[in-house]
Every structure is written in C-alpha cells, then in structure tokens.
Amino acid sequence: MSRTIKKFAPLFVMLIVIGVLLKVGFTPSQSNIVDNSRRDYGRGIATTVAPKVNRQNPPAVPAPKTRSTDSVLQKAFNNRQSNLQVQGEGVVSRVLSDDLEGSRHQRFLLRLSTGQSLLVAHNIDLAPRINRLKAGDRVAFYGEYEWNAKGGVIHWTHHDPRGRHVGGWLIHNGTTYQ
Predict the structure, then answer these.
(1) What angle do CA 110, 41, 166 make, to 5 degrees?
(2) In whole angstroms, what is the distance from residue 41 CA to residue 50 CA?
(3) pTM, rounded to two decimals
(4) Which of 93, 108, 112, 138 could connect to 70 by a Cys-Cys bridge, CB 3.0–4.6 Å?
(5) CATH architecture designation of domain 1-178
(6) Using CA of residue 60, residue 110, residue 138, residue 43, what is the dihedral sign?
(7) In this predicted model, what pLDDT tens digit does every residue of 124-134 receive, in sequence order?
(8) Pairing mode, if any, of strands 153-155 and 117-123?
C-alpha cells in the first residue's frame, strides 16, 4: 500500500498545485521564466514559486514539501544517499562549460553555508539558461540530489514534460527558471 502512495505522491502534489493555481486565476503562459523579484524568500530557502501570472501581484503558491537546509544535504553526502528531492540556496563558486553530451546542461558549482560543494546540472533543452551567471551570485534551487565524492549533484531543476517527476527550478536575481 505504501509503495502505491509513494508512486502517486508527485501526482497528488501536482493536482493540489493545479487546484491552487486554478483557484487564484492562473492562466497558462508559454514562458517558463518567472519574475519573482518582488518576493521575499526568507533566509536561505525559497518558500514560494508561482508560474508567470501577474507580475505586479503574483499569487503565493507553496513549494511542495521537501527535505531542505544545508544540514540535510550534508547528511545525504555523509551517508552517500541519492534520489532526494531537496531545496536550498548557495553561492556560485565557479561557472563550468556546458555539458553537450545527450541533453544539454548548464553546469556550475554552488558552495553551501556548510562549505559543501554541489554541482548543479540544469537541463537547458527543457528550461531556459541562466544568462549572466557568475561566481559570487546566489542561486536557490529545488531539485534532486545525487551523491558523488565531490559533494553531490543537483539535477531535475526543470519541469518534466512527461509529468512523471516533480518539477524543479532555479532562482537567480529574482527570476525563476523551470
């Protein structure tokens, strides 16, 4: 029974989010970029994300419940855990060249407040590239953590066109990339 619940949990979350969006008057947009420059995300973790609706007064849509904070990522690294949906924020320590093998990915390293380093692999075939990204910039993320010996990788920072995986995002300078 619990296996069935786990299998359909992302679908239930998506249905709840769709219901909230419909209730607040969401109208679909062709853009996957959202201007969140007027939002207050608190210290370290983005707490709301909304599709492009009304740039002057966008509705607040809660992010799906997820593991968050740097300490959870540090624990996942120490325990060699993978496949964890996580949310957090870090400072860009280095912008890397794009990975052009298979699906194209924009790559950069984030440094968390704990000192842990994460590679972010952002699929730019499915989501917009973060232009003008540079070392020292803050980036919030919601994606899937995969362990590796160098600190880990965050991927699935985009929507899933097949609807099988919970959608992720990146936020840079008030703009959401999903």
Answers:
(1) 70
(2) 12
(3) 0.63
(4) 112
(5) Beta Barrel (2.40)
(6) positive
(7) 999 999 999 99
(8) parallel
